[in-house]
Amino acid sequence: MTVKSFLICLSIPFYLLACKGEKKEVKQTEITFKKEGELLIHKIKTDSSTVALDIEIADTDFDIQTGLMYRSSMKTNRGMLFVFDDVAQRSFYMKNTKFPLDLIFIDENKIIVSFQKNAKPFDESSLPSGARAKYVLEINAGMVDTWRLTVGDSLSYTE
Disulfide: which of 4, 31, 107, 157 matches 39 by Cβ 3.0-4.6 Å? Predict the structure, then answer.
């Protein structure tokens, strides 16, 4: 081995250590609620609105994929309404969602067709609609029971 080769071999570990550099801390910005509309839920038996919510509307591919991920909480009088282009069986999951939710599946006539209650944070299990839906409303877990919502109740919303 020549002196030149020896020096090159000796310098490689120092070069690699120097290139490693400092670790950079990545800060994740908290996503905050942005009111984009108001939603009323109407009870089928009384035809009166029993629940009023401020809503965010998820109607783009990015918003639908992201949903309420990376947020730490949501106030009781708020929700996220997912609006799809078509009516189909839906399936959601709780990946990167930090707090429990109730999911309300709604058909094209804005009638509630099914629920998934108390979805667990970070759970990647499928939460199927069990019926065809055009809309999905995510609210805090327990609110479906608190508000005594039932299949057949309806909703209206404004943007």
Answer: 157
pLDDT at 36 over 80: yes
Measured between alpha carbons, how far is 67 from 82 in angstroms, rounded to an integer? 8
Q: Indicate whether 7 belongs to any domain.
A: no
- Enclosing domain of residue 137: 27-158
150 assigned to some structural domain: yes
pLDDT of res. 7: 44
How many domains would you assign to the chain? 1
Token pair 């009023």: residue = 52
For residue 49, the domain's CATH number is 2.60.120.1140
Residues 6 or more apart whose CB falls under 8 angstroms from that of 3 comprise none
* Confidence category of residue 24, pLDDT binned at 50, 70, 90: low
Residues 132/139, Cβ–Cβ less than 8 Å: no
- pTM for this model (two decimals): 0.81
